[in-house]
Each structure stands twice: as C-alpha cells, then as structure tokens.
Amino acid sequence: MAVVSKPAAKSRTSSLADAPRQPVSPTEALLEAATRGDVETVKLLLEAGVRADVRNANGLTALMLAARAGHGEIAMLLINANADINGADPHGITPLMIAAGAGHLVSCAHWLPPGQILSRTTPRV
After folding, report:
1. Chain mean position to CA 19
2. Share of the chain above pLDDT 70, in %
3. Any idea where the domains of the chain sit in the sequence?
4. Any bridge partners for residue 118, and if so which?
5. Could you tell me if 71 and 40 are in contact, meaning their C-beta atoms sit under 8 angstroms apart?
6. DSSP one-letter code for 81
7. What 8-state DSSP symbol labels residue 106?
8. Could you read off the pLDDT of 65-77 as tens digits, one per residue?
9. Closest listed residue to residue 53, CA positions, set 71, 41, 65
10. How far apart, in Å, are the Cα atoms of 26 and each of 34, 70, 81?
11. Which CATH architecture has domain 24-111?
C-alpha cells in the first residue's frame, strides 16, 4: 500500500510575514506608491491633498524614494506638487544625490532648471 503524505502546512508566522501590509495613512500610501512606481496612486493621493514632501520614519521623502528607484515620472509629479528638490535626509543627502548614487542621474537631470550645473554638492535653499 502506497503512503501518501500531506503537503506541509504553512506556519502562521511565515504567512503573516508574506502578506502585504496595508498602508495606515494617506502619507504612508504616498511613500509606498512612490517606492513601487505606482503613478496612478501617486496622482490620486496628490489630487486628494496629500502633501508631496512627506517623510518616512527614516527621514526620506517620497521624492527621495522615487529617485532611488528611478521613477522619473513620479518624481516630476511630486516636484510639480511642490516637493522640495533640495530637501535633505538626516545625513544631508538630497534627492539628486540619491538618484546619482542609484545610477539614475541621467533620467533625473531634467528636474534642474535649464543651464544649472550639477556639482558635487547640491546647494540648500
């Protein structure tokens, strides 16, 4: 007689860890959408009045998160909604520096006004 084994049941802990986390606020939803590259959600949240320059618990703005991931369209939406392009994280790193460090500077260089030269540091306003 053949023995048939049942598939192992998933542990409760691993299934909870794998489950997507629901945003708890519009601010967190904007930060997550900027990270994921979810253009439509970013548009909806900005139109609903969520501030473009919100920060996460680590001091990163939605613009910084979009810059790190190379989401240029989202970055432009945030900039057009008054996100601070010169705002720095707690270590003094700006969105353009983050984009450059992640290899996305070329796609983000159009954020700058015509004729502005990129230097090693971004001036603070």
Report:
1. 20
2. 65
3. 24-111
4. none
5. no
6. T
7. H
8. 999 999 989 999 9
9. 65
10. 12, 22, 15
11. Alpha Horseshoe (1.25)
What does each C-alpha distance from 64 to 16, 96, 111 come to in angstroms? 29, 8, 13
What are the pLDDT digits (tens) for 80-105?
Answer: 999 998 899 999 999 988 988 888 76
Structure tokens at 58: 């680590």
Question: What amino acid is encoded at 103 in this protein?
Answer: G
Contact 98, 68 (CB under 8 A): yes
**CB distance 70 to 41 below 8 Å:** no
Which residue has tokens 């489950």?
A: 19
Q: Which long-range contacts (CB under 8 A, 24 or more apart) does 74-80 make?
A: 74/33, 74/34, 74/37, 74/38, 74/39, 74/42, 75/99, 75/108, 75/111, 76/110, 76/111, 77/39, 77/42, 77/43, 77/46, 78/34, 78/42, 78/46, 78/52, 78/53, 79/52, 79/111
Which tokens belong to 44? 């909806």
Residue among 111, 73, 74 nearest 94 (CA): 111
